[in-house]
Amino acid sequence: MHHQSLKVFLTYTDDEFANFYSEAGLVELQRHAQVVRNLTGRVLEGRELAEAAAGCQVILAHRSAAGLASTFEHAPELVAFLRGAVDISTIDVSAASLHGVLVTQASAGFGRAVAEMGLGMMIDLARGISRVRTAYARQEEPVLAKGLQLNACTVGIVGYGRIGQHLADIAGAIGMQVRVFDPYFPQDQLGAMAVSFDELLRVSDFVVCLAVASPETANLMNASAFSCMRKGASFINLSRGELVDEDALEAALDAGHLRGAGLDVGRAQDQKPSVRFVGRPDVVLMPHVGGMTVQAREHQTMDTVRQVAALAAGRMPEGAVNAAAAYRLNQFLKQVSTQ
Fold it and tell me: Tens digits of per-residue pLDDT, 268-323?
């Protein structure tokens, strides 16, 4: 199939393209398809997104661009809606399926990036880096409680997925004791690291939340959990805002029960930490950028390129979430294979 017969609409605004896609990715993408860029300077969604992508068989969407029912209703030529991220919560998959449109997601290439951010937050909290820098900038003489050496500390990892496994490796390599609570992971593979949730809270100097957000993990870190943590321990959340009862975290910090917290996620828009924690010297705050490294971004960019390459070659791409319902795609793939 001649690649120019596949047209792809790239939803990324210029700013999003610079931060989340890449020139190298675009060059690769253009080897497999004709690419139409979003030149409006705005994030598009709904019917407006469908109209901007008129004539394209594929929409390649940044996480800001929602795939709404109205998008799929007004895009008669669309065969696939590709997300350049893992999170597809803003895509109405059932509406896509109703119209026979394939939805895909990228794989998680940011496990190591987020684990390294976790290490950075532990070092910051152990040594008071952010706290002292703020005081020094105000020309105050910083009063610093004795810093902790990480090799004398225990890290408790809640949720042993990719990020948790990387963090356990890094922490072990610098001499930390590692404890893990994950009831869904084979306990025999965890060996001596395996503990109950209560035990993890009791023994850890750093509790790092890496569990999946689900109805059963909602407010997992509540007042009772924070009170079980040892006095002077720190809490770090790198997974999802829904796992933390923010009133309880604020109370534990205000009472001086916790040494500090590191938050890359929270309940503000786009999973950013909540405003209430901004400016607190005992909280290391990052605006949901734990996975933002050149290497992680490029991994997800190249995932989308491989997906487009598969479509152009008449194959079902990796990362498909509703392959069985994608009847438009199946017709399209048949056409491609007969060309």
Answer: 988 999 999 998 999 999 999 998 898 988 999 999 999 999 999 999 999 999 99
Side chain identity at residue 293, one-letter code: T
Give the burial class of 61: count Cβ atoms within 10 A of its Cβ; 0-12 exposed, 13-18 middle, 19 or more buried.
buried
Beta carbons within 10 angstroms of residue 237's beta carbon? 26
Give me the residue spans of the domains in the chain: 3-109+293-338, 111-285
CA dihedral 258, 261, 265, 266 (to 10 degrees): 40
pLDDT score for 3: 47
Q: List pLDDT tens digits, range 127-178.
A: 999 998 888 888 988 776 689 999 999 999 999 999 999 999 999 999 999 9
Q: Does 3-109+293-338 match 111-285 in CATH topology?
A: yes
Strand order in the sheet with 233-237: 177-181, 154-158, 206-209, 233-237, 258-263, 283-285
Q: Inter-axis angle of helices 294-312 and 327-338, to 10 degrees?
A: 70
Q: What is the pLDDT of residues 21-67, one digit of tens each?
A: 999 999 999 999 999 999 999 999 999 999 999 999 999 999 899 99
Q: Are 236 and 116 in contact (CB under 8 A)?
A: no
pTM value? Answer: 0.80
Q: For residue 339, what pLDDT band results from cuts at 50, 70 and 90?
A: confident
| 262 membership: H or E segment, kind and range | strand 258-263
Closest residue by Cα to residue 130 from 144, 150, 149: 144
Quote the CATH superfamily of domain 3-109+293-338.
Answer: NAD(P)-binding Rossmann-like Domain (3.40.50.720)
HSE (side-chain half, CA atoms, 13 Å) at 100: 13
Q: Does the domain at residues 111-285 carry the CATH identifier 3.40.50.720?
A: yes
